[in-house]
Amino acid sequence: VRAALLHPGGPVPSQHRNGRQSHERRYAESTIASDMSKIADSMLQKNFVKFLLTQQDKKSKSVDTSEELDIPFIWNLLQERLGQLVHSKGK
């Protein structure tokens, strides 16, 4: 724009042309960097959600496993065995 104001209708001097190209290149590079950053953020978000879902699945499976076990039965069995062991050592 500045070059057009200085030289309307005429050729743009090379110093202005190079400056404009440099500015356009910086703009293009920053646009590409911004797009790459957005893509990387999106990938990180997706991986984090996948991680959370995996952790939730693991947690729910461990809860399911403990529900499958008869905890009161096992606890009573351990108390009986411990009581037997204590009585046998006391004799």
Q: What is the radius of gyration computed over CA atoms, rounded to a whole number of angstroms?
A: 36 Å
Euclidean distance between termini CA atoms: 104 Å
Helix content: over 70%
How many helices? The count is: 3
Strand count, sense and barrel status of the largest sheet are: none
Mean model confidence by pLDDT: 76
User: Oligomeric status of the shown chains?
Assistant: single chain
Query: What pattern of helices and strands is seen along the backbone?
Result: HHH
Structural class: mainly alpha
What is the count of β-strands? 0
Shape: rod-shaped
Unreliable stretches? 1-5
The total tally of domains equals: 1
Strand content: under 5%
Could you explain the architecture of this structure?
- The structure is a single chain.
- The chain has 91 residues and is mostly helical.
- It has one domain (2-90).
- Helix content is 88%, strand content 0%.
- It is built from 3 helices and no strands.
- Mean pLDDT is 76; it is low at 1-5.
- Residues 1-26 are annotated as: Disordered.
- GO terms for molecular function: glucagon receptor binding; hormone activity.
Q: What's the topology here?
A:
Blueprint: H1 2-6, H2 14-68, H3 71-90
List the defining traits of the structure above:
hormone activity, hormone, Gastric inhibitory polypeptide, glucagon receptor binding, single chain, 91 residues, mainly alpha
